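Input:
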Amino acid sequence: MDNKDKVLPIEKFEDLTDEECVKQILAGDKQKYRIIISRYEKKLVRYVTYLCYDSTLAEDVVQETFIKVYSNLNSFKSELKFSSWIYRIAHNEAMNAVKKFRFIPYDYDLVSLLIPSSSNVAEDYEKEEIVKNVNLYLQRIPLKYRQVLSLYYLEDKSYGEISDILRLPIGTVGTLLNRAKKKFKDLVKEEIEK
Amino acid sequence: MNEDKIEKNVMEKIEKQGVKIKPKYIYSVVYGVLISLVIFFMTGAIISSNIAIYTIRTHKPFNYLAFGDFGLAEFFNRFPYLPIIIFFTLTIIGLYIIRQFDISYKRTFLFFVIGAFISIIIIALSIDSLGFDEKIESALPKPLQGIFGNQKHEELKTGYLDISTEGEVFLVTKYEIFILRLEKSWKSQIQFMDNDCVIVIGSIKDKFIDVTAIAKCK
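Output:
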């Protein structure tokens, strides 16, 4: 194993941007790909789980995504944010998986995966309940609305980034988001009235 | 599988199972091929729409609708279906390829669709108005001239118009018949004058045209 193949602690490279990492990987430093994986694996597993509602399938999809991203690193264009690019590939992989396994039952165990844990147990429990309920409603919303809702509110992406990930015009993202919010509100209202 | 396992599996595949970064030239080649295909399909769409416009201009299929039922068969006979079908097919394929580029989602795709159709038709109309089609058609070898439309009247330079009355002298151009004199006894509500341009529906018998309907050119 030569010097550049040595496993280095990821914390050392916190200041390195994704784009700089990509440059170094392309220059031959394969180990820097660990930084990319550590930065995105949780986020991508979470996002893909929102789309396919199966944590095991989501992990398989994300693994495939990382391999695809690595082999296609040369096609990454600097005008796009790296995070948008990697989310787009994960999104496409997830869509293929959703098409392949059309009827996926809701996985209640994934709730713990979807929320970051804090030191406060009571707070965690409350958050868990909220996420559980939100997910139950999300599951009943069509996929095209679910993906914009999860990207905007749960993944904290901007309109521009969502546009790049879903390959939709920014105006369409706004329209979808408004409709998704309305659908979500209607569902909650319906549930309360019951 | 947990997340550490994802990292382990991915890195193992990269380091031991030979997952490699695809070289940059592959993307340049794919990009070049896509651009060439877009140019190829759009050029094809321009040429076919130009042929359709030229055929409509010279064969005037819509004029035959003036004959009512009599004219329908001739309208269908003269209408340039094939170039129009080719034009739509090539434009749709070209647009499908454009959709693969990142630029395609920055604006509503309908904008590209409308833009492509309008641009192609404007270019085709411009080529037609400059008279290129006539030049190209006359430069083509005779068997190929048919691609610009129906040539079945071409052999009739002069002859007689059989309209169940006395034979009359007339002149046939490639697509139109110019009447020099028509019998007054011919039953028609339209008044024809000498040198009027007319369009007729009928069949060619030797040097005669057996006319079932006749109308003035528009």
